[in-house]
Amino acid sequence: MKYIYILGACGSIGTQTLDVIDQYPEEYKVIGLSVGSDLILSKKIIEKYKPEIVCFRKEEHIFSISYAPKVVYGDEGLLEIARYQRYENEWLVNALVGVAGLMPTVEAIRNGKNIALANKETLVVAGDIIKEYVRKYKVTLLPIDSEHSAILQCLRRESDREIEKLYITASGGSFRNFTREELNGVTVEDALRHPNWSMGPKITIDSATMMNKGFEVIEAHYLFDIPYENIEAIYHPESMVHSCVEFKDGSIKAQLGVSDMRIPISYALAYPQHRALAVKHVSFKACTLHFDDLSMERYPCLSYAFLAAKKGGLYLAVLNASNEAAVHLFLQGRIPFLKIEQIIYEEICSEVYERSYTPSLEERISVGKSVFAKIIKEYGEIL
Ligand code: NDP
Ligand code: MG
User: At 76, is the pLDDT very low, low, confident or very high (cuts 50, 70, 90)?
Assistant: First the structure.
């Protein structure tokens, strides 16, 4: 039996995790959940799984529950779930959005929980520190992201020293058939219509700007210890090949599957087993796959991610915070789509974030907060 905690249980990854758990009720027991602003869904989920600890998004969201779990709320509540410890084989599925997911991951590791990580911002901002904690506290961290799950599967029983390169595939996002000129004037509704995946709003925008792929390169660097120059993002519009590993002898292993996040979720929860799952399977009938280079001119956010990674230190926290602020403003209709990349570029080119030492978690979070606040103040009124 695995004892499961889910942060962000009402979201896209959260609900799909519950769907996987439903398929193996004898294997998984839900012990803790953090729910969201959708109170009807929150109630349904709490009453169905009856977790021992529940975290509400805000104090005013707390409603009466038919039994008596421990009830917590807000950022501190997320940390209380991360600290709650009752069983041996505990796993925390982190499906929060943004840097809000970072400290709960850290706290869960410190408390001996294994991590199934969807919250990619955790690794973008603090991949180096997280890796160190995973080693120190002897826990397992597995990715819930189709690309990293694919690489993990390709690397089973392979030796790291034989890896030549990682290829991370990208669908191209909502505007893949648009020229840069055509991006002027696109709407939030257009941007939220991803051609291949149904995901939460923030990652859907990150996919349209290609920042999501930039984040995934950074995640792959930390998860698999591969230098940035050996990681390449490639265009693959069908989203059937989820990523590939090239070995030194020229052999390439790829992992394929339909675009359904329940597959990587199930792999993380059942690792290393490929347990039976009620999802569609690939049909090769009349199937054509395409691959191409991803142009950094067409998708500058990808090059900004590489630039921030090269600068290191605080720049990854700044990359993430400026992206979170810009995407937030775009989703609110307060800035146009192309302003997102401009805002990020201004921040990562600034010299004020240069440091001669490795910044602590606290400094990264604090600088990220001030970058976020500054951008909201500066650009909030412009359209
Ligand atoms: P969603 O927006 O669908 O869901 C996120 C959930 O977490 C919501 O219920 C939300 O509540 C809650 N939440 C967000 N921020 C906070 C916070 N600060 N405190 C408490 N609760 C919070 O997101 P996704 O499921 O799409 O994404 C989750 C993470 O997984 C992201 O990091 C994303 O990049 C990553 N990911 C997602 C994939 C996907 O297919 N969706 C694929 C690969 C990675 P509320 O409703 O109130 O906002
Ligand atoms: Mg992905």
Answer: very high
- The reported pLDDT for the residue numbered 383 is 44
**Atom 45, ligand 1: which residue's CA is nearest?**
36
- Which tokens is 13 given? 């990854």
Q: Say which ligand is closest to the CA of 93.
A: 1
* Ligand 1 atom with the shortest distance to the CA of 75: 19
- What is the amino acid identity at position 2? K
Hey, what are 132's tokens?
Answer: 């160190």
- Measure 234 CA to ligand 2 centroid, in angstroms: 13
Identify the CA nearest to 319 among candidates 337, 296, 300, 293: 300
**Which ligand has its closest atom nearest to the C-alpha of 99?**
1
Which numeric CATH code is attached to 2-143?
3.40.50.720
CA 47 to chain centre: 27
Q: Is residue 147 a contact partner of residue 216, using CB atoms and an 8 Å limit?
A: yes
Beta strands in the chain (DSSP E): 2-7, 28-34, 53-56, 70-73, 90-94, 114-117, 141-143, 163-170, 231-235, 241-247, 252-256, 292-293
Residue-wise pLDDT tens digits, 108-164: 999 999 999 999 999 999 999 999 999 999 999 999 999 999 999 999 999 878 999
Q: 348 and 322 in contact (C-beta within 8 Å)?
A: yes
Query: Which atom of ligand 1 is closest in space to residue 198's alpha carbon?
Result: 40
Q: How far apart are CA 381 and CA 383, in angstroms?
A: 7
Query: Which numbered atom of ligand 1 lies nearest the CA of 96?
Result: 7
CATH 3.40.50.720 placement within the chain: 2-143
Per-residue model confidence as pLDDT tens digits over 305-332: 999 999 999 999 999 999 999 999 999 9
Mean local confidence (pLDDT), 170-190: 96
**Residue whose CA is closest, atom 16 of ligand 1?**
96
Q: 312-383 has which CATH code?
A: 1.10.1740.10
DSSP string of 104-116, one letter each residue: HHHHHHHTT-EEE
Confidence (pTM): 0.97
Say which ligand is closest to the CA of 100. 1
Antiparallel, parallel or unpaired: β 114-117 and 90-94: parallel
Query: CATH 1.10.1740.10 spans which residues of the chain?
Result: 312-383
CA of 287 to the centre of ligand 1 (A): 32
